[in-house]
Amino acid sequence: MKAMVLAAGLGTRLRPLTQHLPKSLIPVCNRPMLVRLLETLRQQGVTSVVTNVHYLAAEIMREIGDGSRFGLPVHFSLESRLLGTGGGLAQVSELLDSESAFLLINSDLLLNLDLSAVLEQHLRRKAAATVVVQSHPEDGVTPWLGIDTANCVRYVPGMKDPGGLRRVLFSGVHVLSPAIFRYLPRGEPSCVLRTGYVGMLQAGLVVDAYEVSPGAFMEVGRPDQFLAATFQLMAGVAAPVTRDSPASVIRTGPVLIDRDVALGSGLRLGPYAVIGEGAAIGSDSSVEYSIVLPGVQLPAGTRLRSSIVSKHGTLNVEGLSLPAVAGAQP
After folding, report:
1. CA distance 270 to 313
2. What is the pTM of this model?
3. Is 202 exposed, middle or buried (0-12, 13-18, 19+ CB in 10 A)?
4. 255 vs 241, more confident
5. What are phi and psi of 43, to 5 degrees?
6. Measured between alpha carbons, how far is 180 from 178 in angstroms, rounded to an integer?
């Protein structure tokens, strides 16, 4: 199966982290999120990928290259202006319209689901589209899709709510047939849901839902999501990963330290601390429930909690539920 990865966005919700680094290259547990996604796609049998790029496109193309180091051919679709999810997909139609089905996925996702099972359901139910969904938080804020008792999608944003539908949360993962291209104008900005899906539903085509349990996908496009996903990935780290740490550094719970990191004396790291490549942390500092991105220089006496720090600024995340660790200070 071929796949398109959507990576053209501006990453505004993660500013200032994305001021000089595209969102798809921000490291999650010290590995760029797009690299993680490409590795997952290859492991799940995807044979080639096309990704759209716009903001800081050269950075993405330089990092990913032709995909050979992932064992997965990667092609790029350069957008001189943002075309949206629908316009971006329409621009690469000639690469995908010969497929019986293909994958469309957001770049800011971490996946823990069987994509072959989604494809199997899509083909068995002869759907024009299949979306991966999970239960909705019913918070009155989060966008939703509406499905009927047969797990068919009957409502997407841009339609009038018919009522009587179960609300589900869309993951950003689609399996699509080439029928989608009939409803997406080429060369114009559009939304794959509000334009393409509305068109398919109005034409009577089957749009199916594949429901998964919480944890099957994790979004990392907002600061709170980014920290929560990092904590979830780190939960399986039994012991700190360290390189050349001074003996006076106190480590609690899962801690990830990348290469070429300079650590001062008297540090308290963790729980849930990630230190990126080439970072330096001054003496008598503490970093807990926080991410220090590559190249950051922290002065002595710094105190970080529930924060993400880049060379261009700091994001402080309030109200996030923090995982408990035995021996950690409250």
Report:
1. 21
2. 0.91
3. exposed
4. 255
5. -60, -25
6. 5
